[in-house]
Design goal:
Blueprint: H1 2-10, E1 17-23, H2 33-50, E2 57-66, E3 69-76, H3 83-86, H4 104-114, E4 118-124, E5 128-136, H5 140-151
Parallel strand pairs: 1-2
Antiparallel strand pairs: 2-3, 3-5, 4-5
Length: 155
């Protein structure tokens, strides 16, 4: 996705941050593309902002088809999230950032649920954080049906 390319470029001068991507093409889901870009951008920024000073960080973004779902994973090898905080990260107002408002992940969850999707977070303090977004895929036959319905003349 061009968002990943933009993020790679944005952090290309910082040799401590590496962004990798493995995106399967042709995944079609019913969602707002700009909103998804904003969510993924926020997840990448969260990884970078939460890293230890002067530490290296690798962020891997993966998108795959699994049965009738699209699985999007953003995983970093940063400092992780404490068990105490992890159960609350999707609540409004919860943040570990000094300047944070604590609405990024809460908004992401609300939005993804509105798309009939799910978001979860797995983290091990001192090792990694992995956010998984699961979205229902639209089959190409469903797209043809939608197009056919749209092509019907209105009487």
């Amino acid at each position: 996705s061009n968002l990943i390319a933009v993020k790679k470029l944005e952090y290309s001068k910082n040799h401590q941050i590496k962004i990798e991507s493995d995106i399967e093409q042709g995944l079609i889901a019913v969602l707002n593309r700009d909103e998804l870009k904003s969510i993924l951008s926020n997840l990448i920024n969260n990884s970078i902002e939460a890293r230890k000073p002067d530490s290296t960080l690798t962020i891997a973004v993966l998108a795959r088809k699994l049965h009738d779902k699209a699985i999007i994973r953003v995983k970093d090898d940063g400092c992780g999230i404490s068990q105490e905080l992890i159960s609350k990260v999707f609540d409004y107002g919860v943040t570990s950032k000094s300047q944070g408002k604590g609405c990024g992940l809460a908004h992401a969850k609300e939005t993804i649920i509105s798309w009939s999707g799910e978001i979860s977070i797995n983290s091990h303090e001192g090792q990694f954080t992995e956010v998984t977004i699961t979205l229902p895929l639209v089959t190409t036959t469903a797209i043809k049906e939608i197009v056919l319905i749209d092509d019907q003349p209105m009487n």
